[in-house]
């Protein structure tokens, strides 16, 4: 009974490749804080495949209802109840998670919200943690494909605060909160998976 649930074809397409990366990073018991859970397709797929981790889905208060039915139907023991988390306003669940994951949020949030997302994660991530950020990105102001350029234009025409972010700008944000970009994995459809870790942990690979 998954009919009529909020559904994203992009999530169906990217959940397999993303999982293969998350297996390498989320390789020990711990809680993953997901920011911007959306439909919950990622949460269900990743929690089912990674039973050693606890998945904490969250979303902005205006969107947190979207995933609830799917999460309830999945009834996985390692998915915690959905929480409302607006990166700009909510009190952060400090020290309650080892890892963080967010997909396709940085180009939807306003830049100030992206800053607040990094600040919240940076303040709470333990030294053996990591933050995986998936989506399309620019490199030194350049798009990695024409389709990403068109997507960026479409976003900006919908709302000025949206747009594909530059990896160098994200790395600078990370540095300001004690994180460093450890990995930049190329992913299908001109997406990337960025893995940020605490600067103190840079001598230790997330997979060690
Ligand atoms: C394009 S959707 C991505 C959903 C899902 N992660 C995926 O990959 O399909 C962007 C998500 O970011 C969330 N979002 C936007 N602003 C936010 C904020 N200030 N705090 C938390 N989540 C936010 C939206 O509610 C939405 O779920």
Description:
This protein is of the alpha/beta class and 208 residues long. It has one domain: Vaccinia Virus protein VP39 (Rossmann fold). 34% of the residues lie in helices and 24% in strands. It is globular and about 45 Å long. The strands form two sheets. Strands 3-2-1-4-5-10-9 form a seven-stranded mixed sheet, sandwiched between helices. It has a three-stranded mixed sheet with strand order 7-6-8. The longest helix is centred in the N-terminal third of the chain and has 17 residues, at 9-25. The chain binds S-adenosylmethionine. S-adenosylmethionine binds at residues 8, 11, 35-36, 38, 59-60, 63, 85-88, 103-105, 108-109, 113.
Task: List descriptors.
single chain; 208 residues; alpha/beta; Rossmann fold; three-stranded mixed beta sheet; 6 helices; binds S-adenosylmethionine; SAM-dependent methyltransferase; SAM-dependent_MTases_sf; methyltransferase activity; EC 2.1.1.-; transferase
Number of strands: 10
How many structural domains does the protein architecture include? Answer: 1
Strand arrangement, largest sheet? 3-2-1-4-5-10-9
Classify the fold: give the CATH topology.
Rossmann fold
Give every kind of bound small molecule, once each.
S-adenosylmethionine
Fraction of residues in β-strands: 15-25%
């Amino acid at each position: 009974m998954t009919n009529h649930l909020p559904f994203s074809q992009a999530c169906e397409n990217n959940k397999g490749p993303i999982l293969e990366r998350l297996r390498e990073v989320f390789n020990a018991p711990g809680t993953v804080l997901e920011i911007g859970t959306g439909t919950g397709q990622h949460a269900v797929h990743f929690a089912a495949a990674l039973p050693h981790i606890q998945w904490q889905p969250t979303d902005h208060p205006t969107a947190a209802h979207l995933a609830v039915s799917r999460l309830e139907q999945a009834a996985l023991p390692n998915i915690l109840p959905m929480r409302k988390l607006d990166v700009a306003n909510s009190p952060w669940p400090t020290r309650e998670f080892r890892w963080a994951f967010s997909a396709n949020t940085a180009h939807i949030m306003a830049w100030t919200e992206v800053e607040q997302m990094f600040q919240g994660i940076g303040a709470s991530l333990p030294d053996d943690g990591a933050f995986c950020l998936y989506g399309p990105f620019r490199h030194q102001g350049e798009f990695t494909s024409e389709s990403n350029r068109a997507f960026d234009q479409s976003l900006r025409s919908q709302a000025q605060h949206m747009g594909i972010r530059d990896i160098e700008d994200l790395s600078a944000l990370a540095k300001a909160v004690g994180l460093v970009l450890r990995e930049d994995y190329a992913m299908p459809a001109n997406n990337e998976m960025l893995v940020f870790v605490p600067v103190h942990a840079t001598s230790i690979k997330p997979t060690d």
